[in-house]
Each structure stands twice: as C-alpha cells, then as structure tokens.
Design goal:
It is a single chain. The chain has 14 helices and 20 strands. β8, α9 and β9 form a beta-alpha-beta unit. An 8-stranded parallel β-sheet has the order 9-8-7-3-2-1-11-10. The protein has a 5-stranded antiparallel β-sheet with strand order 14-15-16-20-18. The protein is α/β, with parallel strands linked by helices. It is 25% helix and 14% strand. It folds into 2 domains: 368 residues, Glycosidases (TIM Barrel), CATH 3.20.20; 60 residues, Immunoglobulin-like (Sandwich), CATH 2.60.40. It starts with 12 loop residues before the first helix and ends with a strand. Bound molecules: beta-D-glucopyranose. Beta-D-glucopyranose (BGC) binds next to loops.
Length: 570
C-alpha cells in the first residue's frame, strides 16, 4: 500500500481534523499500556479485544490521540520493550486485523493513533539476534549488534566495566556455534535487550521499513523510546563507567566531562542524521507522520529531537520530576514554552506514565518532594489524609497542565485518580527494575502498571473474566470507571469536563503570566482563558471572570483553597 491520507470521516475540533498537519501541536494524548488496559479473552493480559470494547470510553473521555505502549511479540522481560518482531503483534495481545479495527474505530471518533518504536535494542529473540549468534564473530550478522571480544586470556572478562541502566553489567557473553564461550554483546538495559548497531546501514534501513509498515497501516505517529541512546561511540580506549556515569545526560543532571553531543552513549550528534532519515519517511505521508522523542537530555539539547527536521516533538519530564512548589512549576513552564518555541515545536507535559510513581501518590507525600521511586510503598489505602492530599494536588496539577499550550500526555488510570499500588514485591513483581538493594526490597514500576478497575465488584474489577497478570488491591473497585462515571464529583467526571472545556477554549500557543503572589501559578491564554493554581495553604483570591472549572468542585466562590486549580473565562 502506498502512503495515503488517513481516512478520517470525523472532523472534530482543531486537533481532530483529519487533514490538519498540526493536529499534534496541542493534542491531549492518552497512553494505553495494553497489557493492563482491558482483557477481552480472559487470560489475565490486556489485549486488543479489550481495547475494542473501550472505544466509546476513550471517545467520551475526550482525548485527541491514543499512544499504545509496545504490543509487539515479546517475552515481556521489560514489559514489551523487548521486541521480537517490529512488524507484528504479540498473539497474547491480538492480531494485525484487530489493530486495523482499532485504528479505524478511533479514527471514526477523530482520535489519532500513536505507537511506540523501540529502536535502541531488540529482544534476544529477534530473528537477527539469532542469526548473529549462529553466524559467529566477525560476520555481517554480528555487525547489526554491538559484539566485542572479551579481555583476559580467554576473553572471559567483559570488554569494559560498563553497567546496564537496570543494574548489573552492560555486557553479556554468548556461546559460540561450536559450543565454546565467545564474544560479548552490549545492552544498556536487560541482558535480553541487545543494543542495535546504528552505524550499520542495514539496521537503519530496516527501521525505515518498519516506520513505513505502520504508516501504511494508518498509524498517525510514533513515540520513540530512549531516543537519545541509539548512536554510540565504542572506540577504544574505553572510558570507565565512573567517567560515563558522571556525564549521564539521562537525568539532565551532573557535569559532563564530554562536550555536547560527544558522550559515548547518550545524546550523540549523529542522531540527527538518523532522525533526518526518519523525517523523510514521515513527510512522504499526508499529513506527515508525527513523532515524539523520549529523550532524557539537558534542556538545551532537546531541540535536536523536537525540531521539524528531526522527530518534531520531545518529551520534557520536568513537571514529572518537580516538587509540589509554585516557583518550580513557574520556572519549568516558562523555560519549556520558550524552548519548544525556539525548536519550532510545542511543549509536552507529563505528570504520569508507565515508568514512574503515579502523581496522585507522589503528591501525597507531606513535603514538596518530587519524583520518588520508593513512594509506591506508602499504604495510601489506610492513610486517608495523605490520599486526599495527593488526589487534590493531582487534580490541581492536571487542570494546570491541561490549560498550558502544547500537548498533554495522560497515562491510563490517572483519569480515575488511581494511586500507585504498593506492596508488589519479590514473588509477584514483573518489572526487571524491582530489586533487592542492600538487603531491602525496592519496588519497581509495577505499582503504576496494575490492570485498571472497570467495575466496582466482579472478577478482577471488570478488567478480565479470569485473571490479572499483576495483583489488584481490594480497594480498587472504589476507583473503577463504573463508579466514577456515575459520580459527578469523581476524578473521571473532572477529566471529562476539563478535556471538553480544553477543546472549547484551545487557542494559540502563547501564555501571559499573572502575578497573584508567590504561592500561585497563574497564566492567561490569548483568548482570555485563565488558569490559577493555589500551591499555598491559605485561600487565594481569583481574578474576575466566569469560573468554568474548579478542581475542589465547590460552588462559585471568589477564592480557591489550598491545592486547587480554577479556570476562568471572560
Ligand atoms: C521505557 C521503559 C523501558 C526502557 C527500555 C524506557 O524509556 O519507557 O519502560 O524499560 O525504555 O526500553
């Protein structure tokens, strides 16, 4: 099939118009983690049949696009980010035909479809990795990955001391076809996720084929996994891991001993060439395919991913890692709106995703703490004060995010106000990041990936007829979509109302700050749409105008209490 215009009968709002090439600039994007969304066949793993039963739910929520985390064939060592075949669907999740139905049904509601591309690494079950093992050292098959000889008399030591980002050595030794211990391959993540060699034109071409495969099927865009990792410099002598780690652009912190773009593993300049080739593929479609980079890089480097010549948009995770603090929010918002404008893109806003503690739980902490991977361990179900504080702040932050210019990314379940599920340790944990450190169990990312509650009671809270791949807690039913749909004061009702109003008031990409004191974050969009958030403890007076949304649900009053956001229009 040749690249075509996506057939989309519904023209709905600015973002929903099928031919609008800018649909993504201010889209509200809903992330589906397929294994945890809805299980249609009762095997305990969410699937496409389940998604097909929830299309009306997504349409009623009022999002502009859905981003699917990986659904490819996978051993699920890293939740599907270990891909066996980039152009197929895992049989546990569904079929290509079912995916076609999802695309067409979402499109019929004016909702775009974005999929995850995992290009830094495949899984060790990928056909090309099997070929590499079978072909032996020095072969063209091995040159698609990053194989090196080991050190020591028999090559029994890894080539260097580099560490995987999930812990443990970044090198794994293979057994050669003749049965002897042989070379080592590099993997920035788990042993089962060998890194591709992006200096190899064959690898580059194969990914272009994959992008076209999905573009031709009607997908509207891509979320590019660890976009800053693909290019690497493995020239010798190797730097030590201590040297590399001190310059890790991954968290945007630390002082790098490497010049910009020269770190051997992250954010290298030659990534621009790779993404320019991707851009040529994107631009062959009408409207062009969209892409957003997951790029954990220093803010001044983000434009390299967000520019229209590159992927087009890049995540900033600054709000997600920020404390509950007005000054921090103001600074982050100002800086990112400017950075995005300079890059020729729009900013992205994220409060939760499948990798971090849900924001209703992060904000439950009494101080102004930012991202805290251990936070899922706090038993919110029994600490009502913390739970209420977390939810109030979460809704206030969400309303603030939705009023900002740019794209808002919403993670499944946050529209229900779901807290992180605590206590998924050792025997039930599925995430490779869950670990024991100095004798203490550290929760991984499972707590934000627990299958969604759809009904108050019944098997697996309506997620599945028979099973759930992660345990759901007893209190989940109170957060179910069924309960919240019937309650005008629920988090779900708030998300629906806010998304509908956002669509109604959406305007150009400028903001004007309002000075309402140190504990307020207040800004106005060009058409007068005003957003005020109270980060302090005392009531905050609102500017004049018609209040169209208050996250405390209170009647029309001239002030808002702590941890509340209001939207006001002229
Ligand atoms: C994804 C993670 C995944 C990692 C390796 C990340 O950025 O969001 O879920 O574990 O990439 O693919």
């Amino acid at each position: 099939m040749a690249p075509t215009d996506n057939q989309n009968p519904t023209a709905r709002g600015q973002a929903g118009h099928p031919r609008n090439p800018d649909w993504w600039r201010q889209a509200a994007v809903y992330q589906i983690y397929p294994r945890s969304f809805a299980d249609g066949d009762g095997d305990g793993i969410g699937d496409f049949k389940g998604v097909l039963t929830k299309i009306d739910y997504l349409a009623a929520l009022g999002v502009d696009a859905v981003w699917f985390s990986p659904f490819y064939p996978s051993a699920l060592v890293d939740g599907g980010y270990d891909v066996d075949d980039y152009r197929d669907i895992d049989p546990l999740i569904g079929t290509l035909e079912e995916f076609d139905q999802i695309i067409s049904q979402l499109h019929s509601h004016g909702i775009k479809v974005i999929i995850d591309i995992v290009a830094n690494h495949s899984s060790d079950r990928h056909r090309w990795f099997h070929d590499a093992l079978a072909a032996g050292a020095g072969s063209a098959e091995r040159a698609r990955y990053l194989f090196r000889d080991g050190l020591g008399q028999d090559g029994e030591e890894p080539p260097n001391d580099w560490q995987s980002l999930f812990g443990g050595p970044a090198w794994t030794r293979v057994t050669e076809p003749d049965g002897t211990p042989g070379q080592w391959y590099l993997h920035l993540f788990t042993t089962q996720q060998p890194d591709w060699n992006w200096a190899n034109p064959e690898v580059r071409q194969d990914f272009l084929t994959t992008l076209r495969f999905w573009g031709d099927r009607g997908v509207d865009g891509f979320r590019v996994d660890v976009a800053m990792c693909l290019a690497k410099d493995l020239s010798e002598p190797y730097p030590t891991w201590a040297d590399l780690a001190s310059g890790m652009a991954l968290v945007g912190a630390g002082t790098s001993p490497y010049a910009d773009g020269q770190h051997p593993l992250f954010d290298r300049d030659e990534l621009s060439e790779i993404y320019a080739q991707w851009r040529d593929v994107f631009d062959a479609y009408s409207p062009p395919l969209f892409a957003v980079a997951e790029a954990w890089v220093a803010p001044h480097r983000r434009a390299r991913y967000a520019s229209p010549k590159s992927l087009g948009q890049a995540f900033n995770f600054d709000l997600l890692t920020a404390p509950w603090d007005a000054a921090a929010f103001r600074e982050i918002i100002g800086a990112n709106v400017d950075l995005a404008t300079q890059a020729g893109s729009t900013s992205t806003w994220v409060l939760s995703n499948h990798d971090v503690v849900r924001h209703a739980s992060r904000y439950a902490q009494s101080g102004t703490t930012g991202l805290n991977y251990g936070a899922g361990a706090a038993p919110l179900s029994v600490d009502a004060t913390a739970r209420d504080r977390g939810l109030a702040r979460a809704q206030a932050a969400t309303a603030l995010m939705l009023a900002l210019p740019g794209s808002s990314y919403i993670y499944q379940g946050e529209e229900l106000g779901l807290p992180e599920v605590s206590g998924i340790l050792a025997d039930q944990a599925q995430d490779p990041w869950a670990r024991i450190e100095n004798g203490v169990e550290v929760a991984g990312r499972d707590g934000c990936r627990v299958p969604l509650p759809w009904t108050q009671t019944g098997p697996y809270f309506g997620f599945s007829a028979n099973a759930s791949w992660l345990p759901q807690p007893d209190w989940f039913g109170a957060y179910s979509a069924a309960v919240e749909s019937a309650d005008a004061s629920s988090t779900l009702s708030f998300y629906r109302a806010a998304l509908a109003l956002r669509r109604e008031f959406q305007t150009d990409e400028q903001i004007e700050w309002l000075e309402l004191g140190p504990e307020a974050v207040a800004f106005r969009r060009r058409n007068g749409w005003t957003c005020v958030t109270n980060f302090g403890t005392e009531p905050l007076a609102l500017p004049a105008g018609r209040i169209v949304l208050r996250t405390d649900g209170a009647a029309d009053r001239p002030t808002i209490p702590a941890a509340t956001t209001a939207w006001i229009v002229p």
